[in-house]
Design brief:
- By secondary structure, this protein is an alpha+beta fold.
- Helix content is about 40%, strand content about 20%.
- The strands form 2 sheets. A 3-stranded mixed sheet has the order 2-4-5, covered by helices on one side. It has a two-stranded antiparallel sheet with strand order 1-3.
- α2 packs parallel to α3.
Length: about 150
C-alpha cells in the first residue's frame, strides 16, 4: 500500500487493513481445517515418523506468542528432548488449534500453560488456560465436528 500511495495512511485505514489481514489468516486456517477433515474422510494414512515433540512445542508456542502477545504464555518442558512417532504436520496443526482456541476464547492477559511430560512409553502434552472453560452444556459434544460455544 505504501508503494502505491506515498502519503501517510490514516489510522482508520491502517486498522481496517490489519483486520483484513487477521481475517484473511483466520479464513486460511479454516480452509486448512476443512482440507484436513476431507483428507481424514478420504482415509489417507497419517505419517508415522519420529517427531521431536519438544521442538514442535517450542515452535508452536513461539507462533502463539506472536499471534497473541497480550496473553501470558508459559512452557513446562522436560530437560531431555521428547521424541514420538507420528505425523509432524498433523501434530503441529492440532497444537496450533488448541493454542488458537486458548487465545480466542479467553480474555486478554489470560495465562496459557503448555506442558510436556514423558516416560519410557508415553508422552503427555497439555494445554491449560485460566479462562472461563467450556460451558457444561457444550462439553458432551466438544470433540464433534463443528461444535461451537458462544464466546
Amino acid at each position: 500500500l505504501a508503494l502505491l500511495h506515498p502519503d501517510p495512511v490514516p489510522p482508520k485505514v491502517t486498522r481496517a487493513l490489519e483486520r483484513i489481514a487477521a481475517e484473511s489468516a483466520r479464513m486460511g486456517e479454516m480452509v486448512d481445517d476443512l482440507l484436513l477433515l476431507a483428507r481424514l474422510d478420504a482415509g489417507r494414512p497419517l505419517e508415522r515418523l519420529p517427531v521431536d515433540l519438544t521442538h514442535l512445542v517450542l515452535d508452536s508456542v513461539t507462533d502463539a506468542r506472536a499471534a497473541g502477545p497480550d496473553h501470558r504464555w508459559t512452557l513446562e518442558l522436560p530437560e531431555e528432548p521428547v521424541t514420538v512417532t507420528g505425523d509432524a504436520h498433523r501434530l503441529q496443526q492440532v497444537l496450533a488449534n488448541l493454542l488458537a482456541n486458548a487465545r480466542w476464547h479467553t480474555p486478554v492477559g489470560t495465562k496459557v500453560t503448555v506442558s510436556l511430560e514423558s516416560d519410557a512409553d508415553t508422552a503427555v502434552l497439555t494445554v491449560h488456560d485460566d479462562g472461563p472453560g467450556v460451558p457444561e452444556d457444550v462439553q458432551p459434544g466438544v470433540f464433534e465436528r463443528f461444535t461451537r460455544a458462544d464466546r
